[in-house]
Amino acid sequence: MKPNFLKLSLILPLICLLNLSSCKNAGDARTRPPNVKDRVQKNIEEGRGVKLFSNSQKNIGDFDFASSNELWRASLDTLDFMPLALANYSGGVIVTDWYSDSDVNNESVKISVRFLSNEVRADALVVKVFYKNCSVQQTCKITDRSGVLSEELTKKILSKAAIYEKENKSKKKK
């Protein structure tokens, strides 16, 4: 009988603590709408609640996947000839693995794309290009040569992203 009492004496205060911690101040009645439907709508707009059944068909099928981001898709399409070392949509980074054309054995290239915004514009991404030159003794020197190639990649990514954005807008209008 004592082990049950011990369990009960431990669980009961825990339940009371959880109940008390879940209590919050209901807020100022002057700032809350008196109508229940208006309060529900306000809570949903502020992200404080979930509406399970809705009569409105607004925003149905509107998902924020990586495939819906034009810059992301354009970057992957532009760099599809290179093996990827890292592609993190939530972190906003694409990094390729070292890539070497079959003609040049001692030189490899690595590209990183960092997304600063989801909008299709010139300052929305940073493209860095790194070259690795290795001698016969496998001593390698890595340099950042983000100049012309970086600008060309940025232009290509932005032009593809603009096309994807235009396609998405025309689909949404239908």
In short:
The protein is α+β, with helices and mostly antiparallel strands. It has helices spanning 2-22, 36-45, 70-78, 148-173, and strands at 84-88, 93-96, 107-115, 125-134, 140-144. It has a domain at 66-173: Alpha-D-Glucose-1,6-Bisphosphate, Chain A, domain 4, CATH 3.30.530.
What attributes does this structure have?
about 170 residues, alpha+beta, Alpha-D-Glucose-1,6-Bisphosphate, Chain A, domain 4, 4 helices, about 40% helix, about 20% strand
- CATH architecture verdict of the domain at 66-173: 2-Layer Sandwich
Share of helical residues? 25-40%
Shape: flat
Identify low-pLDDT runs. 59-63
Beta fraction: 15-25%
At CATH level 3, the topology of the domain at 66-173 is Alpha-D-Glucose-1,6-Bisphosphate, Chain A, domain 4
Helix count equals: 4
Secondary-structure map with pairings?
Blueprint: H1 2-22, H2 36-45, H3 70-78, E1 84-88, E2 93-96, E3 107-115, E4 125-134, E5 140-144, H4 148-173
Antiparallel strand pairs: 1-2, 2-3, 3-4, 4-5
Helix pairs in contact: 3-4
Provide structural commentary.
- There is one protein chain.
- This protein is α+β, with helices and mostly antiparallel strands.
- It has a domain at 66-173: Alpha-D-Glucose-1,6-Bisphosphate, Chain A, domain 4 (2-Layer Sandwich).
- The chain is 38% helix and 19% strand.
- The protein has 4 helices and 5 strands.
- A 5-stranded antiparallel sheet has the order 1-2-3-4-5, with helices on one face.
- A hairpin with a 5-residue loop joins β4 and β5.
- α3 crosses α4.
- The protein is flat and about 75 Å long.
- Residues 59-63 have low confidence and may be disordered.
